User: Fold this.
Amino acid sequence: MSDVPVLYIGGWGRSGSTLLAHVLAEVPGFVSVGELRYVWQAGPESNELCGCGLAFDECPFWTAVGQEAFGGWENVDVGEVLELESAVLRHRNVPLLLMGRLAPEHRRKVERYADLTASLYRAIQKVSGAEVVVDSTKNPPYAYFLRAAQAAGLRLRVLHLVRDSRGAAHSWAKRMSRPEITNGDAFFQEFSPLRAGVRWMECNLAFEVLRRLRVPTVGMRYESLATDPRAELERMFAELGEAGRHDLSAVGDSVEVSGQHSVRGNPMRFAHGRQQVRADEAWRTGMARKTRSIVVLVTWPLLLRYGYLRQHA
Assistant:
């Protein structure tokens, strides 16, 4: 049985990962499933809306995935899986994933969670008919787990997506609803400029380290993606050694966002029809100078590394 190719979009939230996932879904042979790390919470536990607009337990795609992977979602103890996630994906336990030898009990948890996860990716691949599964979870601990889980039958590649920290922080300060939750009002967490800057640094540094661990990783700037999606995908595939292998003729300045079977992510996934691809630059006029200064003070080393401080922004 061949390994399942997983293209993992990593980085800090509000950096355009949902947009990128939809762009990648335009490429034949790719299927985007949103933030798969949360499928157990969003699906069997909470029955949230899929990106197609149906409740998880009514979505034919996810029903077929559960049947293929486990003979039905009901055959897996969701409580056990959530306990495994809590133990394996806890930030303080990430160093354990880098160790060659684990304590027997923790190794058992990692291997059990890896087997369940690999079964999910394999089922998604089969049900969708795609070759590559695009996972836009972004979360660093989950990326480190996927690196450790490759022995279970995954082939991990990472697309490290970055956005100007000021734009990300401005977005995190907004009150944004979560339309996938239908049993009452729900909103995304909000972050102060200081906290958003710290988290931006933490997440992006984690993926810089992952690159040094020889996980195939390509960096991409959100602003460049929004300016020329096809050129950015051509560059990405070239850096992954796949230049000319994929048909990018459908990739342009608009993207289809309706009907995709995605778990969690930006509310844009519930929009209808084709949407114009363009960068959200509202922070340039809507962000106070003092707030900008706070974010830059916290994030300037990586802002400089990624070229943002050379733009006189």
Observations:
- The chain has a mean pLDDT of 95.
